[in-house]
Amino acid sequence: MEITETWLRKHRPIYLRATQHPFILSIRDASLPLSSFKRWLGQDYIFVRAFVPFIASLLVKAWKEGDDEANVDIILSGIATLNDEVSWFKREASKWGVSLDGIVPQPANLVYCSFLECLMSAQVDYTQAVTAFWAIEAVYQESFAHCLEDGCKTRDELKETCERWGNDSFGQYCRALQGIANRQLEKASDQVVAKAEALFVRVLELEVEFWNMSVLGS
Ligand code: HMH
After folding, report:
1. Which of 33, 61, 73, 88 has its Cβ near the most Cβ atoms within 10 Å?
2. Is the residue at 78 inside a domain?
3. In the predicted model, is pLDDT for residue 54 greater than 60?
4. Does residue 33 sit within a domain?
5. Whose CA is nearest to atom 2 of ligand 1?
6. 121: burial class by Cβ within 10 Å (0-12, 13-18, 19+)?
7. Where, by residue number, does substrate bind (predicted)?
8. What is the mean pLDDT of residues 51-73?
């Protein structure tokens, strides 16, 4: 079995807390207050801006590692997606009357953004960084894909958001990242694998905190 698959089984409870969070469940049953959605939108914009330099650093690590061109291209496509995402956030925010200028990052967001900054350091190798990247993208993919399942009551105004991360091609992209992570982990030392596993779990915790913040506004 692939390494990331063993982790998904071993850490299933926290994985489910991240991907089936009350924030997501309340999109599914249309009970999410729109104020919570708007809060998430503003906070996630700040997160995405911090995500840009992280992915850029990951691309550099992939290149230095001499990873296959095909893998570098997958990360490059992630950068292109993020570029679209930044524009989308701006459009979406103006649609909802959310001003992106004056947003104060909340504590959970600051903690997550400083985690991203740590991942950029040279101490974190390509294997660890790409594993964390996969986990960050996969949580959003799985979470928002849930909101598009048959029988969900997801409001029309929120469907575009859910499709952004929940669509099949984003799913394929996440599986491609998972493949890169698995191939790197296969040839890594036990020590690096252990560090990557700890990062995986940390991402899940940070995602739970991020959703909590969006629901509760803490
Ligand atoms: C908090 N996690 C968070 N925001 C995002 N936009 C993603 C993951 C995926 O891009």
Report:
1. 61
2. yes
3. yes
4. no
5. 136
6. exposed
7. 44, 85, 137
8. 97
Active site residue 207: yes
How confident is the model over 31-52, as a mean pLDDT?
A: 96
- Calpha distance 218→215 (Å, rounded): 8
Smallest CA separation from ligand 1 atom 4, residue: 44
CATH number of the domain at 175, please.
1.20.910.10
Domain count, the chain: 1
Taking CB atoms and a 6 Å cutoff, what residues make up the pocket around ligand 1?
44, 47-48, 136-137, 139-140, 207, 210
User: What does the alpha-carbon distance between residue 216 and residue 212 come to, in Å, rounded to a whole number?
Assistant: 6
Q: Is residue 150 part of a domain?
A: yes
Which among 19, 24, 47, 88 is the best mutation to test ligand 1's pocket, defined by most ligand atoms within 8 Å of the CB?
47
Res 217 pLDDT > 70: no
Pocket test for ligand 1, best of 45, 136, 139 (most atoms within 8 A of CB): 136
**Token pair in block for residue 50:** 């911090």
Active-site pick, 92, 142, 197, 207: 207
Provide the 10 A C-beta neighbour count for residue 86: 13
